[in-house]
Design a protein that fits this description.
CATH superfamily of the largest domain in chain A: P-loop containing nucleotide triphosphate hydrolases
Number of helices of chain A: 16
Structural class of chain A: alpha/beta
Distance between the termini of chain B: 17 Å
CATH architecture of one domain in chain B: 2-Layer Sandwich
Largest interface: A-B, 13 and 13 residues
Order of helices and strands of chain A: HHHHEHEHHEHEHHEHEHHHEHH
CATH architecture of the largest domain in chain A: 3-Layer(aba) Sandwich
Number of domains of chain A: 2
Radius of gyration of chain B: 17 Å
CATH topology of one domain in chain B: Ribulose 1,5 Bisphosphate Carboxylase/Oxygenase
Helix content of chain A: 55-70%
Organism (chain A): Paracoccus maritimus
InterPro entries (chain A): AAA+_ATPase (IPR003593), AAA_lid_6 (IPR041627), ATPase_AAA_core (IPR003959), CbxX/CfqX_mono (IPR000470), CbxX/CfxQ (IPR000641), CbxX/CfxQ_RuBisCO_ESX (IPR050773), P-loop_NTPase (IPR027417)
Shape of chain B: globular
Distance between the termini of chain A: 83 Å
Family (chain A): Belongs to the CbxX/CfxQ family.
Keywords (chain A): ATP-binding, Nucleotide-binding
Structural class of chain B: alpha+beta
Pfam families (chain A): AAA, AAA_lid_6
Strand content of chain A: 5-15%
CATH class of one domain in chain B: Alpha Beta
Oligomer: heterodimer
């Protein structure tokens, strides 16, 4: 299946130009895009840069015949919810594709439900189907620690883990597996499945965003949808982020996105109720302070409203609190 | 006698890498690739046993090679082929089909003559392998 080529062209080169290879592979574009589109995440970006350098050097070494083995590329992303693990996984798939380590560069995102079956004999075909779909690309297993349930020894998750490990080892050229989840639970998962730890070369931790970064993210999200915050709203948003962080189920950028979705809803409602006569584009795309201020986060959050709701109910019934 | 059916059958046996390249060609054309096996090599035996479903949504041919190797584990002593269906004309038409695995020994075919009315002779071929019951062929 090979064409007759000039032997001089197929002989290993005696020197490589890393800078040229860097330009040629388009890795620079991915790294720049990463810097531009992702706010914060300094350690993550540094790790990706290091990984890219390693892979580039490794590729050059292989061209010169110094290395023959495909390096282990399986990774684990640990971090709290909403810290950008899926987004970075997408970028990583693109990066690996450009460096030629995966052939197609698509990302297949799955959770336990997609891998583990419901009855005996269901798990293996299901897991294999997913693995086949991910071949040539990257398989992203979100909340991977759910695969292992030590409390139920007949859990089918163990079967999925065995198939995963086997394919991760034997088909290293065909797909890259990224496991993602919360740091503490992933640690427990790895300590009870030592096979996974040894097959994963790159552990990347995602730190939480600080308040300024989240505000920046909020503005970036709105900008993408052609909305903007006015000055009062920006101050309110900063207050909102600080207040939301202390409340339960805080999920970093995801909480911000949900807050903005609700603010857009309130803005639409406000415009619909108040508007008399035509509106200009400016009004339609500005989120104002009241849109944000109406959030229950400023009244103590979900817990606060529930507590006050119960209090109100008790008062209505006439029982002492 | 080496069975000469489908594409590439006059070439040396395909390696896994060759299979991957050919299957990738089919996938890139938008055809559904599937793996089939049989122990009845008659040329008019069109419908072989399916090994799993046709792979409709696998973008990469590594999955095909994986399935071929899984099939070899179970049916390594039989014929295995990879076929590619093109659904675009509105019916399923086979665009590609090539053998990727064959038994260690292939006994070949014999001519069968049947005497008809008025000294007519009807000719047909029969594989020596099918004189054994299914499952016991090529053992």
């Amino acid at each position: 299946m090979t064409d007759d080529t000039d032997p001089a062209a197929t002989a290993p080169p005696t020197r490589v130009d890393l800078a040229a290879a860097f330009e040629e592979s388009g890795v620079r574009d991915v790294l720049e895009e990463l810097d531009r589109t992702l706010i914060g995440l300094k350690p993550v970006k540094a790790r990706i840069r290091e990984t890219a350098a390693l892979l580039l050097v490794d590729k050059a070494r292989r061209q010169m015949g110094l290395a023959t083995e495909t390096p282990t590329l399986h990774m684990s992303f640990t971090g709290n919810p909403g810290t950008g693990k899926t987004t970075v996984a997408l970028k990583m798939a693109d990066l690996l594709h450009r460096l030629g380590y995966v052939r197609k560069g698509h990302l297949v995102t799955v959770t336990r439900d997609d891998l583990v079956g419901q009855y005996i004999g269901h798990t293996a075909p299901k897991t294999k189907e997913v693995l086949k779909k991910a071949m040539g690309g990257v398989l992203f297993i979100d909340e991977a620690y759910y695969l292992y349930r030590p409390e139920n020894e007949r859990d089918y998750g163990q079967e999925a883990i065995e198939i995963l490990l086997q394919v991760m080892e034997n088909n290293r050229d065909d797909l890259v597996v990224i496991l993602a989840g919360y740091a503490d639970r992933m640690d427990r998962f790895f300590s009870s499945n030592p096979g996974f730890r040894s097959r994963i070369a790159h552990h990347i931790e995602f730190p939480d965003y600080d308040d300024a970064e989240l505000l920046h993210i909020a503005e970036r999200m709105l900008d993408q949808q052609n909305y903007r915050l006015d000055d009062d709203a920006r101050r309110t948003m900063a207050e909102y982020i600080a207040a939301r962080r202390g409340q339960s189920h805080f999920a970093n950028a995801r909480s911000v996105r949900n807050a903005l979705d609700r603010a857009r809803l309130r803005q639409a409602n406000r415009l619909f109720n108040e508007a008399r006569g035509p509106l200009d584009a400016e009004t339609l795309s500005t989120i104002t302070e009241p849109d944000l201020r109406a959030s229950r986060v400023f009244r103590g959050g979900l817990d606060g409203t529930r507590a006050s709701g119960q209090q109100a109910a008790r008062q209505a019934e006439g029982t002492p609190p | 006698m080496k069975l000469r059916q489908g594409q590439f059958s006059f070439l040396p046996d395909l390696t896994d890498d060759d299979i991957r390249v050919q299957a990738q060609y089919a996938i890139d054309k938008g055809w559904a690739v599937s793996v089939e096996y049989t122990d009845d090599p008659h040329p008019r035996n069109t419908y072989w046993e399916m090994w799993g479903h046709p792979m409709f949504d696998n973008p990469d041919a590594a999955a095909v090679v994986y399935e071929v190797n899984e099939c070899r584990k179970e049916h390594g002593g039989k014929y295995i082929r990879v076929i590619a269906f093109d659904a675009s004309p509105g019916w399923e038409s086979v665009r590609m089909g090539f053998i990727v695995n064959r038994p260690a020994t292939e006994p070949g075919f014999r001519v069968v003559r049947q005497e008809g009315e008025g000294r007519i002779i009807r000719y047909t071929v029969e594989s020596y392998a099918v004189r054994e019951p299914e499952g016991a062929r090529y053992a």
